[in-house]
Write a structure and sequence with these properties.
About 90% of the residues lie in helices and about 0% in strands. With about 70 residues, it is an all-alpha fold. α2 packs antiparallel against α3.
Length: about 70
């Protein structure tokens, strides 16, 4: 378990967090809007939920790893 935590700590840095947030924002705003324009409402809602999860989970995971 200690080896796994060490590997996570070496992978996750601020670049990783900003990348995850950027992907989340892109999914939320761009993909969600495009799907809504194509009248794919269910898929647009799913894209917005996934985007919001990315925006929340990225920084939360970074904070969790840094304090462990």
């Amino acid at each position: 378990m200690d080896y796994l935590m060490t590997q996570f700590k070496s992978i996750i840095n601020l670049y990783f967090v900003f990348l995850v947030i950027a992907i989340g924002l892109f999914t939320f705003f761009v993909d969600g809007t495009e799907l809504k324009k194509k009248k794919l409402k269910k898929e647009a809602i799913i894209a917005k939920i996934i985007g919001a999860i990315y925006v929340i989970i990225g920084p939360a995971f970074y904070i969790l790893i840094k304090f462990m």
